[in-house]
Amino acid sequence: MSDTLSNGAKPMLEIRNITRDYHVPNGLFKPEKVVHAVKGVSFKLEAGKTLAIVGESGCGKSTLARILTFIDPPTAGELLIDGNLVDTRPGHLTAEMRQKVQIVFQNPYGSLNPRQKIGDVLGEPLAINTSLSSAERREKATEMLIKVGLGPEHYNRYPHMFSGGQRQRIAIARALMLNPKLLVLDEPVSALDLSVQAQVLNLLADLQEEFGLTYVFISHDLSVVRYIADEVMVMYYGEAVEYGSQEAVFSAPQHDYTKLLFSATPKADAQSIRARMAAKAERLAKVG
Predict the structure, then answer these.
(1) In a domain, 167, yes or no
(2) For the chain: N or C, fewer Cβ within 10 A?
(3) What's the burial of 91, exposed, middle or buried (CB within 10 Å: 0-12/13-18/19+)?
(4) Residue-wise pLDDT tens digits, 44-82
(5) Does 4 reside within a domain?
(6) What is the spatial distance between Cα 146 and Cα 154, in angstroms, rounded to a whole number?
(7) Residue 167 to residue 159: CA distance in whole angstroms
(8) Which pLDDT value is given to residue 8?
(9) What is the CATH number of the domain that holds 178?
(10) What span, in angstroms and rounded, lies between the C-alpha atoms of 159 and 173?
(11) Count of domains forming the chain
């Protein structure tokens, strides 16, 4: 596999034949069952771009997210950041490498300590990983609150005092406190209302441009993927069955599973919505 992309640039993120197996009990006196969650996945991603990984529940996309963020080590394969091979074995991962990659989960409330003020939530990564003073940490946390559309007045509030969209903004702010290069976003807007989804997606786009961030965006929502992605990878039972530019994958999907996935997703444009409403009215009229 070449060390450069088609445009000659070096990839910021590259994975080579990554696999992840889980051994699960299979009953008394029976050998363990091996679950192949990820099966030989490879891709390259340029700095400042967004790769969306899509597929149904259980396809392996969240397992891959955990590998990319060093939560779970791969069973086999290689992970490279800025061309450097990452040693993901327990005890071998450097603090510098951990800071380069951060994750935002689907449910921000579950990852926020309800007893911890938001200012402390944001300052904690700095306290652990830097030698900044308390005043300097407070200043950086306040600046980041403003970056994500909140304000200094939110510094001393608790997580339960915020809406779902605001909590997701806080989770994004925390992920950015150590100036990472790569942000893995695991279903970051799926629990939000449509109007709030749009606000958070616009925020992510603005932050990507400002900080030069690279995104891996995990989602099952194709309308969101179409809006945010530069490249798309479709996963099916742990395998990457299709990979390409957003335009190519959406305009001319090649794999049968991709075609099925797209055909099963309702279109969200006004014309399609009106057509569905008319069809529903027609069915109700016949029943009546």
Answers:
(1) yes
(2) C
(3) exposed
(4) 999 999 999 999 888 999 999 999 999 999 999 999 999
(5) no
(6) 10
(7) 7
(8) 65
(9) 3.40.50.300
(10) 13
(11) 1
- DSSP-derived secondary structure letter, 31: P
pLDDT tens per residue across span 19-40: 999 988 888 878 888 999 999 9
Percent of the chain residues topping a pLDDT of 70: 90
Contacts of 192 (CB under 8 A, 6+ apart): 164, 165, 168, 200
SS3 of 135, please? helix
On the question of pLDDT at 273 being above 50, the answer is no
Position 6 in a domain: no
What's the rounded Cα separation, in Å, for the pair 221 and 231?
15
Classify the phi-psi angles of 83: left when phi > 0, otherwise alpha if psi is within -120 to 50, otherwise beta.
left
Q: Whole domain around residue 112: which residue ranges?
A: 13-287
Q: Tokens for 114?
A: 């309800």
**What is the C-alpha to C-alpha distance for residues 12 and 16, in angstroms, rounded to an integer?**
13
**Residue 54, phi then psi, degrees to nearest 5:** -125, 160
Grouping H, G, I as helix, E, B as strand and the rest as coil, residue 183 is strand
Residue of 52, 45, 49 lying closest to 5 (CA atoms): 45
Separation of alpha carbons 267 and 207, rounded Å? 28
pTM of the predicted structure, to 2 decimals? 0.86
pLDDT greater at residue 264 or residue 202: 202
Whether residue 126 lies inside any domain: the answer is yes
Would you call 247 helix, strand, or coil by DSSP? helix
Q: Can you list the alpha helix ranges (DSSP code H) found in the chain?
A: 61-68, 95-100, 118-129, 134-147, 164-176, 194-211, 222-228, 246-251, 256-263, 270-287
